[in-house]
């Protein structure tokens, strides 16, 4: 990838960013999760449910949602429970492990090649309960060990202790993601998340010394009180720490939907023009320092496996974003967790109380989902090809549809025409290609092929692309 391309104002301009800045799904799944319909494991749906296809999975991913946090971050829109009472977390683990046992009869001996703990704050759990969780999962699923698997955990650097790093590494975790957001003290105060850079550096060095092979930082632009200058200063500090991967997310201020955000003064939110300037400035800093832009807010150092996979066309996506180790199926455990198989998706009850009651009653908490049609599978494949490999071959589409590419996707190609005119995508005799400039607008390109999104009255509430 040519980093100079992304730094050129002629190729990535404020005008272009503003043109495609509107709300759009993130496409960690297709259809997107807002399309899911009521569904549960006690019957009521026609045909085999999507989890029946777990029997054919040859490899598995596991996701465990740990919703607990010790303090409230005002910007956060995650499914979380803010509490200082640890006993609620301990009892929650019992429910998660009971749910895991419900899946025992749903799966064959498929090896688990990817495990991710998300939240909330997974490291809210003490070392003993982290061990209890992993050992308990190992009694149900064939957890693999070694360099050929990816075990990752999200962590809050404000509360992550060195002994917990030791424990995580001993349990097989080899990837660590830390939520930084911003290093500017005024911005940190505005979002109630104080974290000195030196603490993050010590944890980064400690994780590397313990053998974590990939360390990533989450950053956010558009936070209250941020400016282009302050964000550039944060980026400069991050570059000194040299994490392997960086996620640079856009802050969506939606206080009408997320109660915690009502604690942020709307007067402090940067205007859209400033947010665009921030993204341009941060991009130039990161690519100028050698990071490769993968798409969908993610950057990686050229020696990181993610950047190498992108260059070789081996990237994949799941509900945690880009991944090196796609599995045939994913089992999500915990409140609001989403699972998938080749036949569709299913999601647990959102609230912890509802989740706990459901698992206590019947062993699972499935509340809604989606069974894939043949057309869904085609569009799912096409969207993932575009997002991960930046191209889709005409012949591959036509072999799946039995129809000419332009015929099957006539309306979709019409929706893409403005992006063709802007140099974001191109169609030739080989197929559809996303340009390096278009890599910034993958959500918009994917949305052109979203049949559910473009149906009359389809609704849907999404975050803005920028």
From TrEMBL:
Signal peptide: none
InterPro entries xrefs: Coprogen_oxidase_HemN, Coproporphyrinogen-III_oxidase, Elp3/MiaA/NifB-like_rSAM, HemN_C, rSAM, rSAM_horseshoe, rSAM_sf
Residue span(s) of domain Radical SAM core: 54-289
Manner of cofactor binding, per the entry note: Binds 1 [4Fe-4S] cluster. The cluster is coordinated with 3 cysteines and an exchangeable S-adenosyl-L-methionine.
Catalysed transformations (reactions): coproporphyrinogen III + 2 S-adenosyl-L-methionine = protoporphyrinogen IX + 2 5'-deoxyadenosine + 2 L-methionine + 2 CO2
Annotated Pfam families: HemN_C, Radical_SAM
Keyword annotations of the record: 4Fe-4S, Cytoplasm, Iron, Iron-sulfur, Metal-binding, Oxidoreductase, Porphyrin biosynthesis, S-adenosyl-L-methionine
GO molecular function terms attached to this record: coproporphyrinogen dehydrogenase activity
Protein's cellular compartments: Cytoplasm
Pathway entry: Porphyrin-containing compound metabolism; protoporphyrin-IX biosynthesis; protoporphyrinogen-IX from coproporphyrinogen-III (AdoMet route): step 1/1
Function of the protein: Involved in the heme biosynthesis. Catalyzes the anaerobic oxidative decarboxylation of propionate groups of rings A and B of coproporphyrinogen III to yield the vinyl groups in protoporphyrinogen IX.
Family as reported in the entry's similarity comment: Belongs to the anaerobic coproporphyrinogen-III oxidase family.
Protein name (database record): Coproporphyrinogen-III oxidase
Organism (species): Microbulbifer harenosus
Taxonomic lineage from the root: Bacteria, Pseudomonadati, Pseudomonadota, Gammaproteobacteria, Cellvibrionales
């Amino acid at each position: 990838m040519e980093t100079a391309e992304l730094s050129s104002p002629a190729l990535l301009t404020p005008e272009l960013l503003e043109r495609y800045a509107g709300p759009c799904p993130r496409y960690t799944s297709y259809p997107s999760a807002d399309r899911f319909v009521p569904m549960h494991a006690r019957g009521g749906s026609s045909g085999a449910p999507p989890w029946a296809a777990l029997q054919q999975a040859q490899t598995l991913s596991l996701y465990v949602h740990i919703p607990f946090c010790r303090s409230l971050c005002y910007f956060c829109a995650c499914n979380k429970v803010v509490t200082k009472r640890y006993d609620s977390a301990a009892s929650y683990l019992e429910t998660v492990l009971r749910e895991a046992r419900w899946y025992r009869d749903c799966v064959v001996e498929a090896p688990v090649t990817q495990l991710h703990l998300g939240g909330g704050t997974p490291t809210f759990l003490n070392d003993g309960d982290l061990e209890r969780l992993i050992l308990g999962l190992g009694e149900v699923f064939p957890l693999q060990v070694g360099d050929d698997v990816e075990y990752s955990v999200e962590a809050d650097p404000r509360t992550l202790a060195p002994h917990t790093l030791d424990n995580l590494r001993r349990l097989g975790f080899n990837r660590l993601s830390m939520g930084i957001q911003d290093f500017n003290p005024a911005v940190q105060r505005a979002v109630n998340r104080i974290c000195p850079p030196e603490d993050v550096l010590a944890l980064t060095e400690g994780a590397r010394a313990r053998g974590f092979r990939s360390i990533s930082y989450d950053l956010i632009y558009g936070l209250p009180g941020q400016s282009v200058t302050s964000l550039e200063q944060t980026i400069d500090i991050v570059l000194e720490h040299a994490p392997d991967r960086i996620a640079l997310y856009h802050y969506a201020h939606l206080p009408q939907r997320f109660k915690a955000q009502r604690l942020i003064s709307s007067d402090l939110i940067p205007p859209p023009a400033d947010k665009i300037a921030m993204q341009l400035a941060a991009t130039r800093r990161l690519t100028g320092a050698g990071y490769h832009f993968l798409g969908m807010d993610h950057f990686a150092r050229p020696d990181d496996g993610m950047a190498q996979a992108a260059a070789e066309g081996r990237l994949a996506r799941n509900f945690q974003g880009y991944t090196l180790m796609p599995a045939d199926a994913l089992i999500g455990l915990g409140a609001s967790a989403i699972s998938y198989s080749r036949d569709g998706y299913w999601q647990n009850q959102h609230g912890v109380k509802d989740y706990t009651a459901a698992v206590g009653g019947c062993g699972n908490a499935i509340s809604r989902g989606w069974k894939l049609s043949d057309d869904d599978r085609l569009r799912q494949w096409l969207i993932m090809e575009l997002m991960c490999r930046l191209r889709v071959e005409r012949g591959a589409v036509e072999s799946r549809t039995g129809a000419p590419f332009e015929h099957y996707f006539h309306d979709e190609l019409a929706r893409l025409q403005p992006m063709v005119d802007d140099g974001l995508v191109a169609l030739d005799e080989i197929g559809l290609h996303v340009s390096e400039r278009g890599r910034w607008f993958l959500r918009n390109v994917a949305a052109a092929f979203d049949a559910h999104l473009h149906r009359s009255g389809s609704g849907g509430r999404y975050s803005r692309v920028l």
